[in-house]
Amino acid sequence: MKHHRIFVVVIMVLVGLFCSGLKRSRDSKVKIIQLPQPQLAGRLSFEEVLSRRRSIREFSKRPLDFTQLGQLAWAGQGITEKQKGLRTAPSAGATYPITLYFATQDGLFVYKPQEHLLEQVINGDIRAKLSAAASKQPAIVNAGCDIIVAGSVRKLRSKFGNKSRTYTLLEVGHIAQNIQLQAVGLELASVTIGGFDVRSVAKICKLPKDIEPFYVIPVGYPAERMATTSEDLKQNQTKSGAGMQKSQ
Fold this sequence. Notes:
45% of the residues lie in helices and 19% in strands. The protein has helices spanning 2-28, 46-52, 66-77, 127-132, 138-142, 154-160, 164-185, 198-204, 230-247, and strands at residues 32-34, 79-81, 86-87, 98-104, 107-112, 117-123, 145-151, 189-190, 212-220. Strand 4 and strand 5 (107-112) form a beta hairpin. The longest helix is centred in the N-terminal third of the chain and has 27 residues, at 2-28.
């Protein structure tokens, strides 16, 4: 009997060591990407960026680099005041209930604003699954990355009660606009997609229970060249005006 107990204890110790080793092994495989510091000045003026923003649904399959991903992440939720932790988008009561996820060919990554880094959540390309959850929209598969804007309404409830969802959605809008304007500044294209099955996207992205997806924003290189200078914009406006005159 005594020997039996010793045997059981030894087995339990070995199992414990195996499980802890397995956990460390899994943790060691988590990819963490320290992003380059964001640029605070761009080639285009703010007015030019506004005039060029369009919803583009046709992308080349060219991937984005970490500098581009970092700039997009910073535009959406980056820290702009370290002492107070203020970010690029306003938030009701500075509660910041929104989390950004980036789906690329290398997997799904969550953005950590304080450290300005991407941490891998899922290994492997999930963009085809995301597309299937959004009526098979090709933009989600073809764009260099899909930014999932997700958040926790519950995080605001103790402070804002029944206004929590409204305030969360307003913040989602601020963030989405920031991302789209930054995409233009990087000479990239984007489109906001809200027509998807919420539960399916949450499951595909393995989101925590209190986090729900609000937007999927494909961002990437457009399939066709976009206007890149003030002269291009003027030519486009001239063509549009001439087209209207002919149609009249």
